[in-house]
Each structure stands twice: as C-alpha cells, then as structure tokens.
C-alpha cells in the first residue's frame, strides 16, 4: 500500500493545477521531509499486521499455534504446507479451492457490470432528461442508501422462493432455481443493493459535465442514446472505473449475501464461504486461514493495483465540486 | 501503460487457468445410479427403495474434514437407493437457518445442535412431524433421556444423531505415570490430587474460554457439570426451564464450588499465567499444556481430542486421555453432561422421510462410527465399530444404564441467556466479579 501515497499527492496536484494560496500552502507542507517521514511511518505501521499474516502463512502449524509470527526471525522455519492444504485441500465434500475461485468470478463480474450499466443509464436520465418528479426520484434513490441491506434479506429471499402474490393474483411466480441457476439470485441481490450508491455517484459525475456539450450535440441532431454513447460514456470512464472497483471489492469480499442467496453448495458458493468453513467444525484448523486469506486477496490486489489511478480520481467523484 | 501489462496478463492467465480447472472439475462425478439396487450389499436398504433420482438437501454446522466423513457415511445408502443427498455445512448455521426458513428457502433436513432452536421452529409450525417408521425406529433405538430433548409439547420432532460427552477431564497418562499420580474417581481425590500437584510447584489445572463471539461457553459447561453433581438432575431440569430462579441458592453453591478450582490462583492457569488469563486463552489451545507437562488437568468435552497436534497419541497409555469428571454426591448417581445434534425435517416427501429413518437406523450409526471420530447415544451402535479409545469411553458412558444424562443447559435456555448473558456473565465472573451479582444479572436478563 506504500505506493498509494505518492499517487494521491500526484493526483491532488493535477486536480488543483491552479491552486489558491491555501491549497498551495497545504501542498508545500505535505511535501516536506517530516510529512514524508510521517507518511512512511503510517504506511509501515498499517502494513505490519498484513505482513505478520504473510509470515504466519508460511510457518508450520505447530509454530503458528504456539508462538507469535515475530519469532520467525530468530527461529526461521518456513513451509508451504498451509498453501498446499488451502489450494489442494483434502476435503472431498467441498472440493478444491479452484472451483470456488471460479464461482467467485462468476458472481462478481456480472454483479459489477449489471449495476454499472443500469446506474449509468439512470444517472444520465436523472441528470439530462427533463421530466416531472425528476428531483424527487433522485432524492428517493439517494435516500435508499440508508436502508441496511440486512433488512432486505428475508423479504428478498421470499421474493425468490414464493414469488409475489397480491390479493390472490400471482404477479410473479416463484423462481425455483436449482444449483448453478442460483447465481441469478446473487446477481439480482447485489445489483439491487448496489444501485442507490451507484446512481448517486455517477449522477454527481454526469451532472457536472458541461451543458454546452449536450446542447451542441443536440443541435447536430444527436438523440439521447447517441449522446449517452458517444459523449457521456467516454467522459465518465474514471467514475465508472472507480465505482467498478468499489463494487468489485465489496462483492468479492462479501460473505453474507452469497451465503443467503447462493447457498453453501459447491456449485455456487464463492471463495469467502469456503474460507469461512476451512477452519473446521470447531475451529481446530485455523492455521489454514492465514494462507486462505492470502489466496483470496490476490485478485482484489490485482484489480486495485491495475485500476489504482481511477480509484484515486473516483474518490473525488462523489464530492461536491465548485 | 507499461505498468498495466503485467497485472493484466496475470489476470488473463489466472482466468484461463481457472476455467481449465473448473472444466476438469465438471468432468467428474454425476454417475450415481441405483443399478446396484438388487445386489447383496444393498439388502439393508430394501425398505428405502422407490425414490430413485430424488434429491434431499441437508443443512448443518458440521464442515470440512468432519463433513467429509459424514458424506462418506451415507455413500452406500445413496448408491443403493438412488436418493441424492446434497449436504451443506456452514459456520453460520445457527444464524442462517432462521433466515432461510423465514425466507421460504428451508432445507429438507437440518441437524440442529440446540433443543431450544428445535422448540422455536416447532412452535412456529415450520417443522414436519416424523413419519411413522422414523418415529418407531427412534423410540426403539434412542434413550428416553435424549428423546425428550427432541420433543416439543408432546410431539417428537428431532431425532438425536451425533453426541459428545462433556463430563471429561483431560490429562496426560504419561505424566501421571512418571509422577506416580492416580486418576481420581471421587471429588475428594480430585481436590487432594490438585493440592498435591500444586505443592509440587506445577499448576494442576488449565482452562480457556475465549471463542470469538461465543466467548465464555466453556465456563458455562463447568457450572452445569458441577450443578448436576451437587444438586442433582431434577434441580438441573428446573434450572434450565426456569422453574427455579437462575440465582437459586443451590446454583450459587455450585458456582462457588466451581470457583474453588477455576478462580483458585494456586490451581490456575497452567501454561498461561494466572486466573485472569482464562478469559483470554482460546478454548482450542487451553488444554494443549497437558501434553507439554505445564498443566495436569483440563476439563473439556470429548471432541477436544481433535485439538491435539498431529502425532499426539490419545489413549489410556498415550500422551493425552480423559477421565470421567468425578461425582460429588454418590446419592445423585453418575451424572453425564453432554450435547449432540437433532435431525429435524422441513419437508415430508417420501424420500426425505426415508433419509430421516435411515439416519436413525443401526446401519447408519455403525457406518458412521466405523469412519471414526463420532459418537452417538443410539443403542444400536456396536462398540466394536468404534475405533478410537476416547470415543469408546464416550460410548460406554452414554450407554451406561446407571448414568443420568443431561443436555448442555446453555443450549436449552432461551438464546438471550444461553448464548448471551450466561456466557458474558461467566467472563465477568472469571475476571473477578463476585458470584451473587453475576447470577443476579443473568437472572434479570431471562426473557419474561
């Protein structure tokens, strides 16, 4: 995570290209030697637990269970046994980690793309198409963010398992999904839970685009779909990427939603579900969690590092701009 | 852009690798057919036939290595009958099951370890009654002490399956032999031995109650075990059903009696420090000093056998073994504290009932016991099929007709107490709070 620090500074510089004096002073102070030293110390302190976990994951079971990870420096004993157990585990009932890895991807990728697509369209409509009640609609969507998703778990599960009946009339039959089809439930749930924030974030970004652009395009005869495709989409790429990362990390690390809507069967359960089971019925094999944690952070780490600069820009996307 | 290429390549490679792996994973399995139905080895499954190709889902908290054994134990049944059993184990079982049931997504069968939870589902009308075959078999094979915990308002809903014995004290036969100590059979001997060990400069006992958000439960077992011994099973039943207050004087006595060991700085806490270290020591690790000679005795259930490191010989002449936690008052019989899980059904399709009946049968319990690491109260279990010495001892204790079995009280009480204030109260108690205010606090938290 140490690499993140200079990028923040660089991003800030770019954004505040024409600085007011206050911002300039802040930047000068942040570039001083003391500030650098402090940020390095913070970065190191922040990284120590993760580093300890990494060391632990390479130590033999008995060592992990009896001594702290720092003893590895005075008494170095390293093994890949934990990774061996995690990746090619003996558990026949749950299969190998690799298939859960695929499940995680199968859950995560659509759960990122669906809300991205819907939210971009909705945000555009809310920002640039004039219709009655537009602001109220936006406020309603914005307000939905405060609904905790835990409240929606049981009703949504009923929605899937018994369908919707109103006054004896079946509006929607039960979905009756089995095995791999349950992915659809997870996608649906994640999309629902992500939309309010996604619409809010993208709306802030899209509504800040210069109105002249849209007007010029409309004068040239462009329709809304055309404007959205050729003007808006390319301009909001950083915001899309930023939300994409947020959503990716959230869905990848999610246990609750997957556990309820995908179930724990090995056809649909993601990596997190398997990790939670890995310690055994009474937690006796908890040394495996060290290696398991590292296996599961590989993908988020790759995604984060490769999309890092969008991430930093995206952090500013939700803020109000002058 | 140069920065970009490598992670992206890695991503592609990871993706391709993953796809390849999943493709191979899909290629195996799915060849279950009941073409063996007529063969000799399938003879015991004759009465379950006629459900070929049906699927039954089972949900429980048993996972990883133990779930493997579970699946292997019914593999012959599924081969012979063609009933496919989709098993799912989860660490969040107790929290997830109500969500799934309320959401209309209940499993066909669940193994519920808490009689309190069985009662809750039965009262809500979610559970199906047992089929006639299952009921007859359960009543024939299971001790009455156990069946009563699966019974709600006179109707039997849960058939006991696995069990564990909690009235055990772990010790090292090797160390005991070296030092010339005898395994105590009465409470007086137990205390005399503790004093003797303490005088030799070694802490005789070790304990640990840290267990994530369930911290405190091992101490509740201590209290329940002692209460069963000082006050007897009848008072224990009144206590768990709240017919007497939680802080009844007899309970206070039992807690204080447990305190003479648990809160005694001369006895505690071998290998970890003083009495205060009990609350910060993980229960998984608490008994390990027994094998390293830093602690002589550790009171914990039979399942603790799995916590010892690989290579530890768990036997009467090995590195670790357990003796029965001695009775205090001979007039109160030979009390046994234990726990186990109950098979309940949310569906009553014929194949679900077939599986339920099978799980209560002699064929199943012996098939499961042969795989090891499992004990049941089912009296059709042939002790010759139980390999490990500690499981054998557990089965002997469970099948002992003179024993008085009682279920873990914290699983019988309402969750707010049994999985809440009782645990937390014990932590406060171990941290130095006096007995009376702790029990008073738990009593006032009992749901009205």
UniProtKB/TrEMBL annotation, chain A:
UniProt-annotated location(s): Cell membrane
Keywords: Cell membrane, Membrane, Transmembrane, Transmembrane helix, Transport
Primary localization: membrane
PROSITE patterns: ABC_TM1 (PS50928)
Sequence ranges assigned to domain ABC transmembrane type-1 in this UniProt record: 101-307
TM regions (residue ranges): 35-55, 100-129, 136-157, 187-206, 227-252, 291-312
Single GO biological process annotation from the record: transmembrane transport
A Pfam family the protein falls into: BPD_transp_1
Keyword Membrane (UniProt): yes
A GO CC term assigned to this protein in UniProt: plasma membrane
Membrane topology of the entry: Multi-pass membrane protein
PANTHER family in the cross-refs: ABC TRANSPORTER PERMEASE PROTEIN MG189-RELATED-RELATED (PTHR43744), OSMOPROTECTIVE COMPOUNDS UPTAKE PERMEASE PROTEIN GGTD (PTHR43744:SF4)
Family from the record: Belongs to the binding-protein-dependent transport system permease family.
Descriptive protein name: Alpha-glucoside transport system permease protein
Source organism of this protein record: Micromonospora lupini str. Lupac 08
From TrEMBL, chain B:
Keywords carried by this UniProt record: Signal, Transport
SUPFAM superfamilies, sorted: Periplasmic binding protein-like II (SSF53850)
Leader peptide range in chain numbering: 1-25
rRNA processing keyword on record: no
Claim: Kinase is one of the keywords in the record: no
Source organism, top-level taxon: Bacteria
Short name of one Pfam family: SBP_bac_1
InterPro entries listed in its UniProt record: Bact_solute-bd_prot1 (IPR050490), SBP (IPR006059)
Protein family membership: Belongs to the bacterial solute-binding protein 1 family.
PANTHER family, alphabetized: ARABINOSE-BINDING PROTEIN-RELATED, OSMOPROTECTIVE COMPOUNDS-BINDING PROTEIN GGTB
Name of the protein: Extracellular ABC-type sugar-binding protein
Provenance organism: Micromonospora lupini str. Lupac 08
Upper lineage: Bacteria, Bacillati, Actinomycetota, Actinomycetes, Micromonosporales
């Amino acid at each position: 995570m140490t690499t993140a620090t200079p990028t923040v500074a660089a991003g800030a510089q770019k954004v505040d290209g024409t600085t007011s004096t206050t911002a300039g002073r802040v930047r000068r102070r942040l570039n001083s030697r003391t500030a650098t030293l402090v940020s390095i110390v913070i970065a190191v302190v922040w990284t120590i637990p993760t580093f300890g976990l990494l060391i632990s994951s390479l130590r033999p079971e008995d060592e992990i269970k009896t001594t702290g990870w720092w003893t590895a420096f005075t008494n170095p004993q390293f093994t890949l046994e934990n990774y061996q157990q995690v990746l090619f585990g003996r558990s026949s009932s749950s299969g190998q980690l690799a298939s859960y890895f695929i499940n995680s991807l199968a859950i995560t990728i659509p759960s990122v793309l669906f809300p991205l697509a819907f939210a971009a369209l909705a945000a555009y409509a809310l920002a640039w198409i004039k219709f009655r009640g537009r602001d109220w609609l936006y406020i309603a969507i914005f307000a939905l963010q405060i609904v905790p998703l835990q409240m929606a778990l049981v009703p949504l599960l009923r929605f899937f398992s018994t369908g919707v009946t109103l006054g004896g009339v079946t509006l929607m039959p039960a979905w009756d999904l089995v095995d791999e089809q349950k992915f659809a439930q997870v996608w649906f749930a994640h999309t629902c839970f992500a939309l309010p924030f996604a619409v809010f974030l993208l709306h802030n970004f899209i509504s800040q685009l210069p109105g002249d652009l849209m007007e010029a395009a409309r004068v040239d005869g462009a329709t809304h779909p055309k404007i959205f495709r050729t003007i808006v989409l390319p301009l909001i790429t950083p915001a899309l990427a930023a939300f994409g990362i947020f959503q990716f990390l959230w869905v990848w690390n999610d246990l609750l939603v997957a556990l309820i809507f995908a179930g724990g069967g090995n056809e649909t359960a993601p990596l997190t579900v398997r990790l939670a089971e890995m310690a055994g019925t009474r937690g006796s094999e908890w040394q495996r969690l060290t290696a398991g944690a590292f296996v599961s952070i590989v993908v988020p780490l790759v995604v984060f590092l490769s999309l890092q600069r969008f991430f930093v820009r995206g952090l500013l996307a939700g803020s109000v701009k002058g | 852009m140069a920065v970009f290429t490598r992670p992206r390549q890695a991503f592609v490679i990871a993706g391709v690798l993953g796809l390849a792996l999943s493709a191979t994973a899909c290629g195996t399995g799915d060849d279950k057919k009941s073409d063996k139905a007529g063969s000799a080895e399938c003879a015991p499954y004759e009465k379950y036939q006629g459900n070929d190709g049906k699927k039954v889902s089972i949900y429980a908290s048993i996972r990883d290595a133990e779930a493997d054994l579970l699946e292997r134990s019914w593999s012959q049944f599924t081969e012979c009958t063609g009933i496919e059993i989709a098993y799912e184990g989860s660490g969040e079982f107790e929290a997830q099951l109500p969500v799934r049931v309320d959401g209309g997504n209940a499993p066909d069968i669940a193994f519920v370890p808490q009689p309190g939870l069985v009662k809750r589902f039965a009262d809500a009308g979610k559970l199906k009654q047992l089929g006639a075959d299952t009921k007859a078999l359960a009543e024939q094979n299971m001790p009455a002490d156990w069946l009563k915990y699966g019974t709600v308002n006179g109707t039997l809903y849960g058939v006991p399956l696995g069990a564990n014995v909690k009235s055990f004290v772990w010790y090292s036969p090797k160390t005991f032999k070296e030092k010339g100590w005898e395994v105590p059979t009465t409470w007086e001997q137990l205390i005399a031995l503790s004093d003797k060990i303490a005088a030799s400069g070694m802490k005789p006992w070790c304990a640990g109650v840290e267990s994530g958000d369930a911290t405190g439960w091992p101490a509740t077992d201590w209290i329940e075990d002692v209460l069963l011994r000082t006050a007897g099973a009848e008072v224990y039943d009144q206590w768990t059903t709240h017919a007497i207050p939680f802080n009844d004087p007899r309970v206070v006595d039992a807690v204080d009696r447990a305190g003479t060991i648990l809160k005694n700085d001369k006895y505690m806490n071998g290998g970890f420090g003083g009495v205060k270290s009990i609350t910060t020591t993980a229960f998984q690790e608490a008994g390990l000093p027994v094998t390293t000679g830093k602690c002589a005795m550790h009171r914990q259930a039979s399942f603790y056998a799995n916590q010892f490191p690989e290579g530890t010989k768990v036997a009467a002449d090995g590195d670790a073994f357990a003796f029965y936690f001695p009775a205090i008052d001979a007039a109160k019989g030979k009390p046994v504290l234990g726990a186990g899980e109950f098979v309940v059904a949310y569906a009553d399709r014929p194949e679900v009932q077939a599986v339920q009946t099978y799980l209560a049968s002699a064929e199943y319990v012996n098939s499961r016991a042969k795989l090891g690491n499992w004990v049941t109260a089912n009296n059709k279990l042939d002790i010759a099929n139980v390999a490990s010495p500690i499981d054998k001892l557990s089965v002997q204790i469970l099948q002992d007709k003179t024993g008085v079995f009682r279920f873990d009280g914290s699983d019988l009480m309402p969750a707010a107490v049994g999985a809440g204030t009782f645990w937390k109260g014990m932590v406060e108690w171990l941290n130095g709070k006096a007995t009376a205010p702790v029990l008073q606090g738990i009593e006032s938290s009992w749901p009205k």
